[in-house]
Amino acid sequence: MQQRIIDPVDGIYAATPDYVHALEVRNPDRFLFVSGTMGLEPCGRAPATLTGQLDLIWNNLRRILVEADMSTDNIIRVTSYLGDREFAEANQTARLTALGKRRVPTTAIVVETLQSDWLVEVEIIAAA
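Below the sequence we write its predicted structure tokens.
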């Protein structure tokens, strides 16, 4: 599988250093579409803190990826659903920590979550 960042600089607003406008993926053998994933413990409980939930979200995503014989290196798209716009910076930090130097297309949307104690939900697309 080959990946190529598409990040034009002329005639469009600049992408910030933490994401890219687009990512071209050539010749993948398979795709993994992951449902919105919450920061829940195995017992189904959500920690009270945003940081606790973000840590669990990325742990849960890594667990799903491992089951599919993938890692965070296979992530090609991230969409975050934030319960409050003030969660944006912490969400960005958690994503950057999880992905390291990899930049992928990403979107964050402020929403009302299905459960009041779910502060953030993240869905990903991965390819291998």
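The chain has a mean pLDDT of 97.
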